[in-house]
Type-4 uracil-DNA glycosylase
Amino acid sequence: MSRATKPSAAPFVPDTVDLDALSHAADGCHGCDLYRDAEHTVFGAGRRSARMMLVGEQPGDQEDRAGEPFVGPAGKLLNKALDAAGIDRNLTYVTNAVKHFKFVPAERGKRRIHKKPNRTEIVACRPWLIAELAAVQPDVLVCLGATAAQALLGPSFRLTEHRGELLHLDGEVDVDVDPDVFATIHPSAVLRGPSEDRDDAFDALVADLTKAAAAL
């Protein structure tokens, strides 16, 4: 990619609402440099007719190797939280704001540690997220973590100030859908937190998901 070219996935996104076609096209995305080190493009997964869409930050180590979203430890915890909130994950659509794994190189055989994507990478990948929103047309959108929330609600959004509130998409997100939006923590935040606080953090995540489900 030329240094003079603003990174963007837009040239790689086909004009379609067919999720299979979008996923296939995303495999060849070179909209930013994250594709260079990742093993797979990790597109979203779930029902085309899902009423609830959940958006995380980016795929992790296991997701990058499998090419599927939310299959690692955070995904397992998300499944548990969704179940506790009375939400069938099989009836949702799950994806990430960034489709390639950004990580710190690790020693051979070790798990690679994720590195937070920067604003340029988030914005570059947003056309895929907008295409998914247009295809799925969810009634409720749940942002899991600050990165996902800022991708869809603007860079000034603060999760600590607006967690659990009913929100709407940022004006820069040009898509013909207006879901009820809720922001909560990413499941990985529960896993990273102090062990003595994890039960409370998990219960708070479940409470946020329950509130989102009530909007359906």
About this structure: The chain has one domain: 17-214.
